[in-house]
Amino acid sequence: MEHIQRLEQEIDHLKKTLQEKENELFEMKRNWMPMQSNGIQPEFTTLYSRNENNVTKVQYGDKLPKWAIERYSRQILLPDIGVAGQEKLCNSKVLIVGAGGLGCPAALYLAGAGIGEIGIVDYDKVDLTNIHRQILHAECDQNKSKAESAAETLKSINSNIKITPYTIQLDSSNALDIIYKFDVILDCTDNVPTRYLLNDACVMAKLPLISGSALKMEGQLTVYGYRSERNINEKDVYQGVCYRCVFPNPPPAETVGSCSANGVAGPVPGVIGALQALEAIKLLVGHTHDKLLVERFLIFDGDEVTFRTVKLRSRDLNCPVCSENPTMTKLIDYEVFCKAQAKEKDLDLQILAPEYRINANQLNEQLRNNFNTNQRHLLIDVRSEAEFNMCRIDGAVNYPIEQFRDAKVDEVLKMVNQNSQVTFICRRGNDSQLAAKIVLDEVDEDHKSRVKDVIGGLHAWSENVDRNFPVY
Ligand SMILES: [Zn+2]
Fold first, then answer.
1. Ligand 1 centre distance from Cα of residue 302 (Å)
2. N or C: which terminal CB in the chain sees fewer CB atoms within 10 Å?
3. What is the reported pLDDT for 381?
């Protein structure tokens, strides 16, 4: 035991030393090599073309410094980027909101491409469950700020660019101040209030918003708020839709899925995040709107391995935020507007009256008593089969909430009416309330007290009863 503690202390000390050395190296490189974020100044090259009888002076375009040509040559070779495009990239500033499954791959490619400054916003800390998809964070980054952890990895990818981490929750009071410093914004978040906040802020600041999302095996991508006047390659005045034009009203909070509740295959946000970076690069080098995902919505289906693009509705000429005469000219409280929290991904619903709820310690006591007294007690776990297979309380039966409604209600009602105790449990104590309510609505009044649900579900069980029970 002592040996383990000594080794852990030694490793901690070495990690700190490594971090200091990396920072020192970064500062040295910063002083010795020109930072792109200070701008790469165009230079003209004069070359001589010789033919049989005379020498013609030919002036070529801008010239990049040697290190930049070497570093970015593979993309400069593309006619769509070239030297001029690379200069634009080196002088651009991109803000990535969310250093998670989408933000990590997007930031990685944008840092590699030499974007002059990358800002990264994330209030959260790195958690072990993040690492299968959030590829800028490693095991040793657990409990570190995600924005800081992402910035450190990006510095190791490209020390010629500026990385600005923002460990904050973006809201109406700070969003505009931050996004005004950038040219393009990437929405790599996972909640509806922040999507509306970013949309409105980007429309007000006249900045394009590249919006991605990923859940389970499916990903989506589009570009909102595109404005042609910012692109010298556009001939006509053109303005693409904003998020509000397409989704004027937020969806009910309980219908919105999350990676923590529904799961996600790591490579799916990887695909979408990489495409967000690609759209940002195309936008910055001056692709016109017909070559970008403007008013088009990309859907990636990882199950079928297909990409589909659907046409979005045209811009809403009465849109409250992006129309000619907007009714919304200031940012609002988006948590109130969406009736959902931007920070906490899992809701704590209050569906049942307190007398039908027990806590994890009470459940533990009951299970022990039942064992001693042989009383009939059915503990019903209403999570999905995949979750039940991951971890469960001994003796629990699995009736997933979706199937419970149709197939199991009668069976459970019969048991309750025959004096059995029935307790519902789920991961956090929301679905278990829904299932208990279905039974409570049907059961005889005298038997109602035999139906319970566990407050806080298996998370509470892990915290209060069995520390070895996995939290996921
Ligand atoms: Zn709009």
1. 30
2. N
3. 96
